[in-house]
Amino acid sequence: MAKSKNTHQRSLWDAQITQRALVDSLRKLSPWNMMKNPVMFVVEIGSVITSLLLVRDFRFHGVASRFDLQITLWLWFTVLFANFAEAMAEGRGKAQADALRRAKSETMANRLNEKGVIVQLPSSKLRSGDIVIVSAGEMIPGDGEIIDGVASVDESAITGESAPVIRESGGDRSAVTGGTRVLSDQIKIRITSNPGETFIDKMIALVEGAERQKTPNEIALNILLAGLTIIFLLAVVTLQPIAIYSHSPQTVFVLVSLLVCLIPTTIGGLLSAIGIAGMDRLVQHNVLAMSGRAVEAAGDVNTLLLDKTGTITFGNRQATEFLAAPGVSKDQLADAAQLSSLADETPEGRSIVVLAKETYGLRGRDLATMHAEFVPFSATTRMSGINVDGRTIRKGAAESIAAYLQASGGILADEVRADVEGIARSGGTPLVVAENNRALGVIHLKDIVKGGMRERFAQLRAMGIRTIMITGDNPLTAAAIAREAGVDDFLAEAKPKDKMDLIRREQAEGKLVAMTGDGTNDAPALAQADVGVAMNTGTQAAKEAGNMVDLDSNPTKLIEIVEIGKQLLMTRGALTTFSIANDVAKYFAIIPAMFAATFPVLAALNIMHLRTPQSAILSAVIFNALIIVALIPLALRGVKYRPMNAEVLLRNNLLLYGLGGIVLPFLGIKLIDMAITAMHLI
Amino acid sequence: MRKQFITACLYTLVTTVLLGLGYPLAVTGLAHLLMPAKANGELIAKDGVVVGSKLIGQSFTGPGYFNGRPSAAGTGYDAANSSGSNLGPTNATLIARVDQSVHAWQTREAQHENAHTNVPIDLVTTSGSGLDPDITVAAAEYQVASVAQVRGLPKDQVAQLVKAHIEPRQFGVLGEPCVNVLELNLALDAMAAQRK
Amino acid sequence: MTENGWFQIALFFLLIVLIARPLGIYMADVFERRKTFLDPLLAPIERLLYRLTGVEADKEMRWTEYGIAMLLFSLVSMLVLYLIERVQTWLPWNPQHWPNVPAVLALNTAASFTANTNWQSYVPETTMSYLTQMAGLAYHNFTSAAVGMALAIAMVRGISRREQNTLGNFWVDATRAILWVLLPISIVFALALVSQGVVQNLRPYDTARLLESQKVVTQDSAGRSVTQTVATQTIAQGPVASQEAIKMLGTNGGGFFNTNSAHPFENPTPFSNLLEMLAIFAIAAGLTVTMGHMTHSPRHGWAVFAAMGILFFAGVTTAYWAEARGNPLMHGVAQQTSATQAGGNMEGKEVRFGIANSALFATVTTDASCGAVNGMHDSFTPLGGMVPMVNIMLGEIIFGGVGAGLYGMLIFVILSVFIAGLMVGRTPEYLGKKIEAYDVKMAMLYVLVFPLLILGFTAVTVLLPHLGLSSLANAGPHGLSEVLYAFTSAAGNNGSAFAGLNANTNYYNLTLAIVMLCGRFLMIVPMLAVAGNLARKKIAPASAGTFPVTTPLFTILLTGVIVIVGALTFFPALTLGPILEHLLMYAGKTF
Questions:
Q1: 3-state DSSP call for residue A435?
Q2: Does B116 lie in the same domain as B58?
Q3: How close C25 gets to chain B, by Cα (Å)?
Q4: Residue ranges making up the domain that contains B6
Q5: What's the pTM?
Q6: Do C425 and A464 count as a contact with CB atoms less than 8 A apart?
């Protein structure tokens, strides 16, 4: 698939973004902001409490213990690191938003008023329904639809694609976006959005995270994390009375340390960063999702509806073979075929020339020097051809040629007919070439399946996604292409209503359906599908009906979208597992340390052999804070995803993040303990 | 809601009659029809007087009888007030009580060959019910010498008696082998009476 | 530990595996109202019962209606039990003429039996009349079990139904549980117990003349030592077998006698012991199969069964190992296994059961929320006693209470599936049902109630020297274990105890009653909410992208989630209780 050519890809630790994130992480300490994240809010409250106690110790005792001071500092770091992660993710979006804002700079629009007079007014004053005229070199002042004219437009501001695109009134390429520039010609546009609601506005809001609402799975996960936090809060709060019973009451510093280490701060601190980064990854793939819900739904897709043309196949048939009639040499046929196609500018025609050149070494000839007369395709004859040097060459569908031959007394040989049928059966399109009144043979035109499609569909199958090819072809042709491309099913001779019915049928079985579309007649299906990706080149109606827009207008992008959706959920799941698994080691560090003074026998639980009780507790707190920073890259990039079946995927992830989550902190805490003991911090 | 409440009341009433009265009375009737002795507690009568139940242990503390286990039920083997000691493993009272029992046993067995062997655990620990009718084979054998001496019976005869009263594992696999103290002591009395 | 001991443990589990399938399929038939071989006998009784009580058997209930019916029935039957206790002295079948039960104790007991806990603050043979035992206590053994089964079936329907608002009819589910499952098995089981020597009569207590009369030293009211001679033994009697059967089968656990299944009249032989343990697990194990069949995923049922099995073996292995090691503080005693004795820590255990069967019984009774005991858990070694406590702390889901175990387990399944779903990159699905925020919220509420009750009440209690600590029978870490165990047992609706704790005080009777009722009904409400919500959902077809809930990996994940959640919640408290006691015991310390 086309690699996006824009510059959205940024290094992970972009200096500017990092700087801004550092400042933001302080700003985010505001309780109003923290309250949105219950896990980190608990950490902040803990930090405030220990800070107040420190102040009290200084006031009344003039001194505070180094241990208490360090614990308090690291608690604050824990909060800051989590804020930093979120700020980093947002920063990446903001950088992108800034670039978009530049495109949005105020322009003057030529509005056509009721009397048909052009009035100049700022683009921000345009309302939906206004009609404007845009000429070459001017910026399009707002989102709209071309109602008159055709123009080439530079859309690089939003797509990053530098090649201009053609936009014209009527049909499926009529939508234009504010902030893009007309390069040639003049067009009349009906504005379709009000100020502040334009496509670029939406895009800015989206990448900045301003409109970011929590997605359903994120809400569910947040509930789980809040629940776990309450459980640990209970465990720690009730530990003090039990400790008092056991004659070993604890200081608040130690209890807060234990609490912060137990509650799932790792995932709690990174959760929103993961969500923002997920949207950001989509944007990097030049896809705009109108909601996070749609991104998650993409990960759940069961059925993928793909249009054959342009998605699975290149969209135009190509010559692949010349089948000569009996008594005709292949060279003869190729020569005639080439001649007949030299002036044919259709993709099919060009492909015949290319095949002749590649297979039979026939070089292109200059028609102009040959005094040839080109006969273009007409709806009545349904043939095209050339008259040159007394040769009358025609090519066309078998029936047309047969009729043509019959008129001049010739017939289509049975062998040729057999070839024609064979090609049709295989899903190809036969084109018969006749010279004078004799059929020379058949050209095999074939829908060429894009490279690598079969592998992609196999991957999708492994992910549990069924692909259905939608085509207007007859069932015979459709079946052949479906077989070649390796899709699971196909819908032949599909009309828009059939597509809609198929979606409804799948959904009734509880499946989630994804599809792409661009035309106005795709709009109802796009709206019905759980994930509807509209092509940016498509009509406004299609773009509004779908819940994502692909700026590259690349229909195979759906596959990437699905992967990003899955990756987003997996990153959350993996870090949740990791976070909870970490607690085992933290217990073994902190619990024996808490009670070692009263009960030296509990040293048996100090399996890491941490140097002192204080160094043990501090090490656990430091590990807990540092792991957040260490995992920021993972949160922003997402965990690695390779398509495979769920069982294997889960096993791998459980081993990596579950087992790894249990083992890693044992090593980490031990190392930190050694380090802080060596540095005499404790 | 009101209707459900009425149903709840009626349902409680009807099922109480069925399950709270019908069921236990039916089982009682069937049990007495099929297994009257078992249903009444396998009571053992001697000379027309009930001397105990085969299933319920009773106190034997003197050296003339095989002793059962210490009991925490009432004043000892109170079959109307079953109870364990409920002393935890680190309870000083428990450890002191065990030490005391061990000392008492070692004193009693001082003249016999087992004077210096460890006391079988069941002889110094209370049972769960306080009514354990059994002791282990080890505990019975541990007492053979002193019982025989006090009763003036040949040691090997008493040992034989113990052997005859070993109840093996049920069906060969279930539970642990044990000796029923009341039955053993009844047999011991019978043996002593026979010798006179 | 002996080979025979391991063999008995393995044999027990093998029998459970063999029972689970036929019983489970039978129960699926019963609850889906299909034909069974007992229909000719029971169908008329069922119809009569509905007619007498005004049940509309074909009316389906939403989860709220289902819950309200359940709550009303529990409330009414609880009040009736309270009433019976309060007036028993004027009612028939009271041959020992026991007085009316004091108010607070009666309340605690009514709450306890309604909540399927059967925590006993009283000594039955000196408190309860035969009528109270039969029509009050054993009655609740049936109904609380039937309520649990009905709720589990409602939950299973929630999973298996597609876009429906209702979960079945509470009265019908409870009735069928009683008539088709609990009652017939209890009758057969009770007679089998009688054949082993479990008593079943309504006669007054017998008196036996002791072979060797005893001089005993007691203290009189002024604290002076008094020596008296005891020449007789009073032997308590009663309708035990009928109560014993349903007490086990319904995972109730309330003993007819104070020492429960350690008492020779409740559990006279190793075979009766085996039968009782099988009865504890039978229905809970069978329900996993029922669930598999009703959700058309039998292998999922077995995967859940396997998770329970793993946790069961982990528990029994630890308990057996710890108890067989004996008590290092006892000197001069033979605790090793030999040809003539099983050895080990025999304090509080019966000789006929030995170590293996005591450890096994303790594990089984706490895996399930039964709470019957055949040995005194209070006298177990610290780690041996920690096993029953941890079993309950994990949520009473290792087979668990009749019905309650399954629905509790399914809550953990939902949480496991949620995490697994995220890890494979899909909105989590459970047997085709999407697990969404509402489900997670209710599942977390369910999970939260448990530590809140256990840790909250334990923390308050250990801070109260007069109300809380004066009841302790043991000092030091073991004392903490006693309190922790009491509230754990009450919250888990288990009913077993570290029985040294004197819980028959106003403070404990009231707090434990609250904890028992909350541990039952506060958890049922969110559970039913999940069931109701699931029933409304579509069922998405499984694909290669959905994480299968039928594989060993799922079993491992589920086990892991249960252990991690439980361990992380209770590790600190356990450290200062049993773990510390264990370390101190080996350091030679007593309290």
A1: strand
A2: yes
A3: 25
A4: 1-40
A5: 0.90
A6: no
